[in-house]
Amino acid sequence: MRAVIQRVSHGSVTVEDKKIGEICDGLVVLLGVDISDNEADISWLVNKIINLRIFDDEKNLMNNSLINMGGDLMVISQFTLFAKTKKGNRPSYMNAAKSPKAIDYYNTFCDEIESILCKKVIKGVFGADMTINIVNQGPVTIFIDSKNKD
Fold it and tell me: 2-145 belongs to which CATH class?
């Protein structure tokens, strides 16, 4: 699994000109599922993201996690995180998982986080053409790949 994590002061998702969700002070996660991912990848990535110490403490040092600060979370499916651009100018997405695996892993990822945080995760609509508005705070943007745990 791959995730682009952005610390935000505000984020929202719109589908067909209708805002379906928004958050304040938390994380927006763009999530891609690889064809070779398994359930261990889900759990590892969930724990990594919710425990990332990327929120400021009282000394303005990044020492707090999403759990510590009780922040909001929005997760958007993003198969394009697996774009291969080595050949030509049209990206290949051959390593991105297809439905139903991708949908199942996306939902399981969100469900695991909800059970740990005890709060609703704002989600996009899988496979829809979405407009994502993000006010990146910091800016802080982190890329994590579950196949590269170093």
Answer: alpha beta
**Domain spans, the chain:** 2-145
Nearest to 109 by CA among 51, 12, 41, 63: 41
With residue 32 as reference, give the H or E element that holds it. strand 18-32
DSSP state of 51: H
* Distance from C-alpha of 55 to C-alpha of 52, rounded to nearest angstrom: 8
pLDDT digits (tens, 9 = 90+) for 94-111: 999 999 999 999 999 999
Taking only Cα atoms into account, the Rg of the chain, rounded to an integer number of angstroms, comes to: 15
Q: Which of 14, 80, 85, 108 is catalytic?
A: 80
Tell me, what's the pLDDT at 149? Answer: 85
Tell me how far apart the alpha carbons of residues 108 and 101 are, in angstroms, rounded to a whole number.
Answer: 10
Task: Examine the residue annotation and report whether 80 is marked as an active-site residue of this protein.
Answer: yes
Which residues 6+ apart lie within 8 Å of 46 measured at CB?
Answer: 109, 112, 113, 116
